[in-house]
């Protein structure tokens, strides 16, 4: 099956090298394909790490081990396998991950726990030990590659390479943050997995890096949805090599901490939006802003209920200003809401207020807005100060084609 | 837009008259269509009533009022409007419902609170007072009609008329339960609404009727899903005229109580399955059985997570034995689960056990099962005794066509 690039695709940005980060790729041939499918990232000694992982309780071995590894706070390498998620493979899957960790650790003369492994692709098939071993050996000796090459290599059925860059000033140093991500394109019987990696030359204490990454994820990766399904392998890792030579950041009181956290959020937001823009079958990028909710968390849940509603998503695909479906989605969220205080807008045009259609409702400008690629939906609950933004794409025939028409 | 009958449609059953229940239909012309769209059911004096309603907090006026009316326990009439849901219409919508209640109450010389009103169709447009008044007037004077006529008249974009019948022996009397239901076909910008009505000639105390209906709903109407969206108007009402002359049932200690509750559950199950069989775009009817869960409620939530997963539904549409997606859906349910104890089957063929694919897995019989119209998926958690069955349909291009391709 050949999938055309998403109409919402964006060009790969110019990302400079990040000191202490070397990218290499190789062919492990996890699937019958002629492309690189193993990414190896070498990180300078002293690199710190933080991570956020899927909440799916049927998570992969890679996720289980990654959760433990980030607690140790140090990293020397990352290996990403594409074409096989190694999820739901029991002890056999664990053996494969441990083999990769040992192989890289021997090469770098580091602890196996400093080697992070992710895998994405078919579920239920243990990662073949021989292919993994040969692939890692080839990658260790490959010439360094570009960010775009690495972004392409971690992808599976992504329709475009996804990367982002940001900078922050810390004291007298300008640090760079570079990120690549894959996700949301898939072919049955593979499973969509979001894998994101952020690299910075900043010196950052791992505990601070973790708290900054968790906070940034809450309003970026945790506020996007394509189809409400949660992968068994979702992972975002942030690595800080310290090569920029800034005074290490260990708390929000430290110089440049706010700037670094802002840059980290910026790159998380960029990367998360790119995943939505490559959502299966996506024709429109949708931002849903919820205000006036009981709390920020309540606003986020209401936003996700709207973003996950097949009826809302198909209405927007059909360029139909069907605000009744937004009302329905607010009501089913299970969060505090008062029907008679609810207001709904498309772009900046309020279509319903105080629980009923606005008297002077003119559908023409709303219909015009819905013809575009970037759609804005606003909901005001009229209850409190809680607010959130979530992002999703529309639900089209393309989603069905990708996920149902092809058979394994 | 013209929608072909669901391939899962079933013929309308032979339903006998129920003593104390008279059905009439009329043209209120809520939409530009040439069909009856107002159903009026007259109920004998002494009829008791119970109801279950949507949990959507943005519910319609009809639902709000219905909730209060069932607490009073008595009913004389039911009016169902098709083509306009009257939801999210504020005080104007309430005015329309009160007008209908008053008009019927005057005709029957009963209390307005004995007149139940439901509406289904477009959201956000107040039910027009003049059309409602003329429609009710016509219906009051219409000749009685059949169950099938009434089932067709409460429908909106349903592709077939849905009804069911059951009987129970109470002491020396055999009582009849008859039910009609609409739901799950829809055209933008209308909103799918499940409206179900059950009529019996049994004499049943309203409190017992309510507890029996609530219990039956928990494992029927509350265990079906088409697309995870919850209508603002969902309503199931049960009316008992008492004309069969049995000793009234007031508790499970009374003669025939178990038989009546079993028949009520039987009819609820039949009606709920018919809604799934008319699910938008449905090509396959799917039963998901969850066993070995921490509790029955946990099993139900896991079953619904599977049933609502777009990836599971598209895999089944594609006749793809993609059990990895079932694993994913179990894991995202947020319920107790242990990946390494999980077992999954299609029909009676276990495809995964103890957290990985079965060694001797032969896909051929599973692939054969998936080609059929009735699909059975089983999940055993291996944790406890909790169990549940839920029912859904597959997710196909038909769903997108119905909900996105047509514009208002």
TrEMBL record, chains A, B:
GO terms for biological process: L-arginine biosynthetic process; ornithine biosynthetic process. This is Arginine biosynthesis bifunctional protein ArgJ. It is found in: Cytoplasm. Pathway: Amino-acid biosynthesis; L-arginine biosynthesis; N(2)-acetyl-L-ornithine from L-glutamate: step 1/4; Amino-acid biosynthesis; L-arginine biosynthesis; L-ornithine and N-acetyl-L-glutamate from L-glutamate and N(2)-acetyl-L-ornithine (cyclic): step 1/1. It comes from Croceibacterium xixiisoli. It comes from the Bacteria. It is an enzyme of class 2 (transferase). Catalyzes two activities which are involved in the cyclic version of arginine biosynthesis: the synthesis of N-acetylglutamate from glutamate and acetyl-CoA as the acetyl donor, and of ornithine by transacetylation between N(2)-acetylornithine and glutamate. The active site is at residue 193. GO terms for cellular component: cytoplasm. It catalyses: L-glutamate + acetyl-CoA = N-acetyl-L-glutamate + CoA + H(+); N(2)-acetyl-L-ornithine + L-glutamate = N-acetyl-L-glutamate + L-ornithine. The record marks 120-121 as: Involved in the stabilization of negative charge on the oxyanion by the formation of the oxyanion hole. GO terms for molecular function: L-glutamate N-acetyltransferase activity; L-glutamate N-acetyltransferase activity, acting on acetyl-L-ornithine as donor. Keywords: Acyltransferase, Amino-acid biosynthesis, Arginine biosynthesis, Autocatalytic cleavage, Cytoplasm, Multifunctional enzyme, Transferase. Heterotetramer of two alpha and two beta chains.
